[in-house]
Design goal:
Two copies of one chain form a homodimer. Helix content of chain A is 26%, strand content 22%. With 346 residues, chain A is α/β, with parallel strands linked by helices. The interface between A and B is large, with 62 and 62 residues. Chains A, B: Homodimer.
């Protein structure tokens, strides 16, 4: 694995620092005692001047521009694909390694797409940019990777996705809708801020995450397919995704069925997941123990439960997977990549 | 099809009249101008004495007891399995036809389990009791029935179920949790009132509807399997269910994948569903049109959209199915059965 130039501490930039994921990145760097020599917080000009606390000290947010990356060792990006396309090459040219949470570079052949528990070896060959996968993909591959060599052939996944995946403004919007009460059907900004059709999100579920593509699937659904294939290094893996937004603030859930090339015992799946990195097994139906978003929120783990044999097919196992979409699904996975790069391991 | 003794109007009883489904039954009888000569509203002794409005007139709720069924032609039951087991035989002995919304008789061989759009012929042979299927099953079979003869082999279904499926007290409990705000994690009564483990339902999803059985599935999940097989008359149908409660008040949703014995075209599926009884096709991704619970709430239809080919398997089609769980999922289906029995057709 390539290491950054070894240092006692690193100059770190966070682009998109005022967003929901950016703030979680700053908090995660602090909580992990990441060796930060200097923290530069960057955002759009309209957010510049805000202060964000890091280890008890206020840090003033600066406008993102080329010069802001001078001297930076590690840049964590979470300001959307356009900002990444603009600033990642500029940051890399000045010597930074960019860990990019946007979708801009994820499917580029020469950009590693990394979940440290799953494919840390992919970090060995990068050209300055490492992509952080989509939130719903990360928790899926963390739970699925320990089972791949049982002969994984097909993943059926229906998601229950928190609104914070659309940013802090979506969290605020859901709270505003909830405050108006269930009789109000006045929509705010769901499912997609920039599109004209808005539907109520409070007391509702919406089978649209991100925009639709020509094939009738949403971008979020195709990320589940394409990113899972790349990370698991299974280009022929069959994935059948349905992505649904639910009125949850933090924590994505996934109802998953995995089909293997041979019969699989539930006990074998449980044993593998019990010792899998990053996984917490919560699976005791007799005591009504299983994962749910309020359990996962604020943590970095991926929770797996409801593991059971398919009723008709001994090759298939069903399970329920939950993780905090802002942490393991974004900020914590990005910081984990940074830790792997500086050789602190995962 | 067996008809009740032909009359201009019928003496109708509603058992469980003060519950969420019972009230919806009374409203549905009124909205449909069901030919009611007398409406007798029955409930537990502690609810007796309440009044419920029917066609603008107050009706006093009486305590359920054997004598209360004297002279009744049609009895709509929605007071739980125990009440059904107690009172259904007593009502039938006195000449009533019982349409039972509980799970008590659904899987009895000599009790028809009926969704009028799907298997009205099953009404031809009953012994006084007709079972109304479980809410999540009804909307599934309404949407699936028009596709069965394409060679249906397997249903994968993940549900998003409204709290009103647990009764009015669950609606009140969710509103109470929501009012406390997302920082409170004080639980009320979810996922199962009578069990000791309660988790927050507000801003959460819980992968448990009803109690767990020994096979690791919940009762709700096994209803989806067993009731679908009985109604569709496909005893070997493979069903892979995950039932999840979501913070929605009214309207169940289902992310479904259907596998057939031969390749199936999406256009063929759309055409069949467009003319299927009880189905409303809402399927235009280019204009962001698809079903969601707030669209279905208060209506008797089953909404289907997000119809798309599986990405890897030409034998499989995915879709999203939504209906009001208290109406098509319970009260309206029961009144539909009554209408079919008196020969007004469906």
């Amino acid at each position: 694995m390539v290491s950054l130039q070894k240092k006692d501490a690193y100059r770190v930039a966070v682009l998109g620092a005022t967003g929901a994921v950016g703030r979680a990145m700053v908090e995660t760097l602090a909580r992990r005692n990441f060796p930060v020599a200097e923290l530069r917080l960057l955002a759009s000009p309209k957010s510049a001047g805000q202060t964000i606390s890091f280890r008890g000290e206020p840090v003033v947010v600066q406008a993102a521009e080329e010069a802001a990356f001078a001297g930076i060792d590690i840049a964590l990006f979470s300001a959307g694909a356009d900002a990444s396309l603009t600033f990642a090459p500029l940051a890399v040219r000045q010597g930074a390694v960019v860990i990019d949470n946007s979708s801009a570079y994820r499917m580029h052949e020469d950009v590693p797409l990394v979940v440290p528990e799953v494919n840390p070896h992919a970090l060995a060959h990068h050209r300055g940019i490492i992509a952080n996968p989509n939130c719903s993909t990360i928790q899926l591959v963390v739970a699925v990777k320990p089972l791949v060599d049982l002969g994984l052939e097909h993943i059926h996944v229906a998601t229950y996705q928190a609104v914070s995946g659309m940013g802090q403004k979506a969290v605020d919007a859901l709270m505003q809708e909830v405050a108006r009460g269930p009789a109000s059907s006045e929509p705010t900004l769901f499912p997609v801020v920039s599109q004209p059709e808005h539907y109520p999100m409070a007391f509702n579920v919406l089978p649209q995450c991100d925009v639709f593509l020509d094939n009738g699937y949403t971008k979020e659904e195709m990320k589940l397919v394409n990113e899972s294939r790349k990370i698991l290094e299974l280009p022929g893996l069959a994935v059948s995704p349905t992505a649904v937004r639910v009125p949850v603030l933090y924590g994505h859930s996934e109802a998953v069925a995995l089909r293997f090339s041979r019969p699989v015992r539930v006990e074998e799946v449980r044993e593998r997941l019990a010792r899998a990195p990053g996984v917490v097994l919560v699976d005791d139906p007799a005591r009504r123990r299983y994962p749910h978003p309020r359990m996962a929120a604020g943590t970095g783990e991926t929770y797996v439960g409801r593991i059971r044999q398919d009723l008709s097919d001994p090759h298939t196992v069903l399970m329920f997977i939950v993780a905090d979409n802002l942490l393991k699904g974004a900020a914590w996975n990005a910081v984990q990549i940074a830790e792997a790069l500086i050789g602190r391991g995962v």
